[in-house]
């Protein structure tokens, strides 16, 4: 086996783990937003500065938590930078906020 094969196997293993982690996350948060998978929004790829501009998802835009789909911030735009009071989702700062990406 040459080192390319080994690198490929390590990569496959990594993918397997990511798929499992992603499935486990979805089982744990069955009501999560299917649009953003817990991310709460999407970085806009056309921007080149850091941090990139961020498009808020329809869930957070309505005041719903992207992970548990409860009304975490009902008409309370002022307090939207606080974590979700139902599940603790914290704007991508929490370790388990968004589904692991595959
Ligand atoms: Zn969403
Ligand atoms: Zn929540």
Q: What would you say this structure looks like, in words?
A:
The two termini are 26 Å apart. It is built from two helices and two strands. It is mainly alpha-helical and 102 residues long. A two-stranded antiparallel ribbon has the order 1-2. It has one domain. 30% of the residues lie in helices and 6% in strands. The mean pLDDT is 88. Bound molecules: zinc ion (2 copies).
Feature tags:
102 residues; mainly alpha; two-stranded antiparallel ribbon; 2 helices; 30% helix; binds zinc ion
Rg? 17 Å
Reported for the largest beta sheet, the result is: 2 strands, antiparallel
Q: Kindly state the mean pLDDT as a whole number?
A: 88
Structural class: mainly alpha
- Number of separate domains: 1
Helix content: 25-40%
Condensed summary:
The chain has two helices and two strands; from the N terminus they run H-E-E-H.
Provide the fold topology:
Layout: H1 3-28, E1 41-43, E2 54-56, H2 58-62
Antiparallel strand pairs: 1-2
The chain binds zinc ion (2 copies).
């Amino acid at each position: 086996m040459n080192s390319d094969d080994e690198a490929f196997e390590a990569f496959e293993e990594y993918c397997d783990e990511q798929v499992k982690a992603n499935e486990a996350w979805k089982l744990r948060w069955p009501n999560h937003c299917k649009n953003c998978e817990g991310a709460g929004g999407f970085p806009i790829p056309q921007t080149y500065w850091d941090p990139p501009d961020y498009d808020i998802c329809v869930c957070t835009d309505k005041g719903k938590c992207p992970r548990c789909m409860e009304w975490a911030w009902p008409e309370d735009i002022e307090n939207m930078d606080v974590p979700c009071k139902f599940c603790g989702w914290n704007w991508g700062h929490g370790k388990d906020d968004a589904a692991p990406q595959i």
